[in-house]
Amino acid sequence: MSVSPPDVEVMRYLVAQGFTYVARRHGAVRFRGPLKCRQGPIQVDLSISDWDFISYPTIRLRDRPAALEGVQAHISASNGLCYYTQGSVVLDRYDPISAVAQCLAQATHVLDELALNPDYRRAELTREYLANWSVAQTPGPLPVVKAGVSVLSTHVRMAAIGARFLIFADDLQELEAISGALDESLTDYGSGAAWVLRTPQWPPMSQSFPKDVRSLFAWLKAWDKNLSGNFQNRLGHDREYLKRANLYLVVESPAGWLGVCVPLGSETTRLLGKRNPSAYRQYMHAKGKTQPVTRLSVIDWSAAFVHSRNLTFQDLTDKRITLIGCGAIGSHLAEALVRLGAGQGKRGRLRIIDPDLMGSENLGRHALGYPSLFQEKSIAMEHELKRTFPLAKVVGVVGNALAVSDLFEGDLVIDATGEEALSEAINARHLKAGAAAGPMLYVRISGTGGAVQSLWVDPEKGACFRCLRTNVPQGHRAERFPIEKSDDAVWVMKGCHAVTLYAVSAPMHAAALAADVVADWLKGDVSPRLRVVVRPGADVHPVKSQNPKRLENCPACSPVIAALRKAG
Predict the structure, then answer these.
(1) What is the mean pLDDT of the chain?
(2) What is the predicted pLDDT for the residue at 3?
(3) Domain edge (last residue) among 276, 301, 326
């Protein structure tokens, strides 16, 4: 039995629905016909180019009915119809007729709702306002990048980064850091080159977006009278903006950031306005229809957006974090911490302490590669993190963490060395520092990498790091929560180096575990404080994650032993 190609099957179906075949071009088959909407048939062009249906068939309205004139959600200026969000629905590639029928039914439903349901039309436009503003209307907007802007800022710097884009921010140093990271020149237009306005109201329904100064005034007034009044007041009193040929206006709203560029006329006209801004404002009202404006599509590069976009909680901005160890675990964890916002904000800092150089023996498991060979690990990591996240304050420290006098002056210290003797020494100093030291996080790989473990230590409660080892004569320094079936370390000589063999994924698992603990700290609850993650198939003892109590006779944190030491 022969099977018809999918385009032939679909053609027969569409003809039965009143469509006609138009053409085949560049692999796309085009049809023309009606969508049978409740307000009457709407003629559309239908184009199918992907018979796997990963990309949906495109539908374009040939003529808009009166009920769909103006700015509409889901309909672009060229009458393209967005009826499914890409990837939201999986069409059946094995049943092309049903797939196309499903698309036509959804397109009909969207058009009916837009034309006949004012609540749907308003809600969808509100939800997709920035998409309409940025991509769906003609002419297109000018892309502008937003960096760090304080919630109190009313005027910000505007600059050009090379010939690539405009960018605005509060801080010139931040703009210089971004341009340096992109290896581009920076042209600064000054601290007041852009105005910032804010409103708690969603942008308005409108027949069109502002195209000239007069329609801009009307649009702002329809949006929010306070917003409009603020803008008009500045136009009438601020003399500084008339020094420049353009005024950039950016608005923060519940829909996000958007803006316009307003040309201010010739230098002669602006010179008169500088003497009397109120008269220039009147000039703008009188001549506004002849002054075109350009929409600005604001792309957020700010640290607040980058580091909190995927979070439902506060990031590490303004936290002072110390990471001890920049080896296999620490290097991957440092990257994760920066992505969580470490080093951001006026107070924020990520300090990385490590005494060692990067050697060839490190390359197989470290986040850094060949370019960092023979460099101090902490300094190389600092440079790499600043290269990829130029706004982060990262400080590499070469040396022994035990020699750092202000080791516990901050919000969190993380020990990622995996060296038990060093961890015990750090633990003793942490406990001695008392409650003022804040919390401590230990993370390590167990044995040959069958599991990874983390322990959160609060000086005021729960087990310390030494509590993970027993302190009784019959089992002195035995694992309290044994993971490995053998407590003997497995060392292998590679050249002149003794190494513990484990999978390249093990330090990544450990770093991920530590990052999860840090995230829970930011959310306010680090329970369970002891966490164990076992790799699938690993031959280890199952250890339950838990909140361990202090070991009764722990030589590090037991109150009784501490009292005896003090008395002695």
Answers:
(1) 90
(2) 41
(3) 301
